[in-house]
Amino acid sequence: MTRLHIQVIHGPNLNMLGTREPGHYGNQTLADIDESLIKLGDKLNVRITSFQSNHEGEIVDKIQHLDADALIINPAAYTHTSVAIRDALLAVKIPFVEVHLSNIYKRETFRHQSMMVDMAMGVIAGFGAQSYLLALRGLHHHFLANQ
Ligand code: DQA
């Protein structure tokens, strides 16, 4: 099998992980999360590239120009609001997993809605940084099973 390429996109305020509301989001920094994804990717023969932005338009641009086989995306606050990110995902039709560190369904009701979840291959929420690693394992398994 050729090396799978998975793009990871982290939405707004996720650059502040480590100090931001650790009760919800844990103590790991974004760099820690990316490092653990790259490490697991190496084990699974998956190339990981990562992108973070606080700006909706930059995330839309990134999605429009993806050259990956699949996407792991934590749209953060844009999960609940962004028609633009939804439309970009619809336009490029890339298989993706929606990820959240916290269990959004245990929190405020405005977080219970996701603009993209009906298009996702799967959703993982509530396992902290492990949510990303579970998404990587899920996508890897999916591509292995369907090669
Ligand atoms: C989040 C949940 C969102 O509701 C919130 O706006 C975030 C992070 C999570 O990973 O748990 O910024 O996506």
Give a structural overview.
The protein has 147 residues and is of the alpha/beta class. It has one domain: Dehydroquinase, class II (Rossmann fold, 3-Layer(aba) Sandwich), CATH 3.40.50. The protein is 37% helix and 19% strand. The protein is built from five helices and five strands, in the order βααβαβαββα. It has helices at residues 22-25, 30-44, 56-64, 83-92, 130-145, and strands spanning 4-10, 46-52, 70-74, 96-100, 122-125. The protein has a five-stranded parallel β-sheet. Helix 2 (30-44) packs parallel to helix 5 (130-145) and helix 3 (56-64) packs parallel to helix 4. The longest helix has 16 residues, at 130-145. The radius of gyration is 14 Å and the shape is globular. It starts with a strand and ends with a helix. The model has no long low-confidence stretch (mean pLDDT 96). The site of 1,3,4-trihydroxy-5-OXO-cyclohexanecarboxylic acid has 10 residues, from loops.
Number of strand elements = 5
Strand order across the biggest sheet?
2-1-3-4-5
Distinct ligand kinds = 1,3,4-trihydroxy-5-OXO-cyclohexanecarboxylic acid
What is the CATH T-level topology?
Rossmann fold
Work out the radius of gyration: 14 Å
Structural class: alpha/beta
Q: What overall geometry do the principal axes of the alpha carbons give?
A: globular
Helix content class: 25-40%
Low-confidence stretches: none
CATH homologous superfamily, by name? Dehydroquinase, class II
Mean pLDDT: 96
What is the count of distinct domains?
A: 1
Termini separation (Å)? 8 Å
Spell the H/E element sequence. EHHEHEHEEH
Roughly what fraction of the amino acids lie in strands? Answer: 15-25%
Q: Could you name the CATH class? A: Alpha Beta
Main beta sheet: 5 strands, parallel
CATH architecture: 3-Layer(aba) Sandwich
Number of helices: 5
